[in-house]
Design brief:
Blueprint: H1 2-27, E1 30-34, E2 37-40, H2 41-58, H3 65-92, H4 98-112, H5 116-125, H6 130-151, H7 159-168, H8 170-173, E3 176-186, H9 191-202, H10 207-214, E4 225-230, H11 236-242, E5 254-256, E6 259-271, H12 276-305, E7 309-311
Antiparallel strand pairs: 1-2, 1-7, 3-4, 3-6, 5-6
Length: 317
């Protein structure tokens, strides 16, 4: 009997050990060789792990095989690029230290007129930590130095290109004013009632309560609230009625196809525009980064040609 137990125990141990070995082999499966560097499946899983965990938490019942496979491919390409970049930087003696990264962040804060706390909050909204952002800045600086080393000259962004980019975003940079409108809708023949309501509101009565009591508009139960509008979004008759009114002021009763209407400006939102001079540093930085990315891609293609790269089929786990 003892012997039988021994056989069973060893069989179980073999199965467990054997399965663990298989899992370890899958985890350590080599998926790419880049020069002297090896990339394993475990490396990819570590890189995409947090993203996959987030996806599974958001979609517990979803089949994510396609997304996970795409993430693995993206992670593999990212690691290949990192190895190529690092090797080329070492070959040329190019380094980026902590002070360089902090200097890069200070430049970002200066250009965008932000504090470090503002930056951390903005990054958090995008699900990025300050440490992850520092890694991004490190990569950007390293790539820029590699590019400048290869082109042997400083990249100049012309005034014309900056002006063209500014002009393409004029709507984004111009001053905008939005007004919040409320209304009371009455039958066309109810002009006397309209004048009475207007008089009461101007004497201190609550417009929203008057709208709930008298208005025939679909938004009457909400106190006549229509929402925020840019003046140019309004019809000509409404635009004329509210032209020149300030916050809290009422229009005269206006005849419209919907009936007799009284409008009130209940709030005003103004977003100040930005002149070319104000945003020029941001535009210059954006155009510079695009040019660096373009030249870095060209440089990367050259490095690939002279580096041994073998990518195996990434097996699904």
């Amino acid at each position: 009997m003892k012997r039988r137990y021994g056989i069973v125990i060893w069989t179980v141990l073999f199965l467990v050990w054997g399965w663990a070995t298989v899992r370890a082999e899958v985890a350590n499966q080599v998926v790419a060789v880049v020069g002297d560097n090896v990339i394993t499946m475990l490396d990819l899983e570590k890189l995409i792990g947090p993203t996959v965990a987030k996806l599974r938490a958001q979609n517990p019942d979803a089949n994510l095989e396609g997304q996970v496979s795409m993430l693995r491919s993206q992670a593999l390409e990212q690691m290949v690029v990192e190895f190529l970049t690092t090797a080329e930087a070492e070959r040329l003696g190019i380094k980026v230290n902590e002070e360089d990264v902090e200097g890069g962040i200070e430049r970002v804060l200066e250009i965008n007129k932000m504090t470090k706390d503002d930056l951390i909050k903005a990054l958090a909204r995008d699900g990025i930590t300050i440490e992850e952002y520092k890694e991004q800045i490190h990569r950007q600086i390293l790539r820029a130095r590699l590019v400048y080393s290869s082109v042997k000259a400083k990249i100049i962004i012309s005034e014309k290109k900056k002006r063209e980019l500014y002009d393409s975003r004029k709507e984004e940079y111009q001053t905008t004013r939005e007004i919040e409108l409320k209304r009371i809708v009455l039958p066309p023949e109810a002009r006397n009632t309209a004048e009475e309501i207007k008089g009461k509101v101007e004497a201190g009565a609550d417009f929203a309560e008057m709208a709930k009591e008298f208005s025939r508009g679909p938004e009457a139960s909400e106190g006549g609230l229509l929402g925020f509008f840019k003046v140019e979004q309004l019809s000509q008759e409404i635009r004329t009625a509210v032209d020149g009114l300030k916050k809290g002021q009422l229009s005269k009763p206006v005849e419209t196809k919907d009936g007799l209407q009284i409008f009130m400006i209940s709030d005003v939102k103004v977003r100040e525009g930005k002149s070319y001079e104000e945003v020029e540093p941001v535009l210059a930085e954006e155009l510079l980064q695009k040019e660096i990315d373009k030249k870095f891609t060209e440089l990367l293609n050259e490095i690939r040609k002279r580096t041994y790269i073998k990518v195996m089929r990434v097996e699904d786990r």
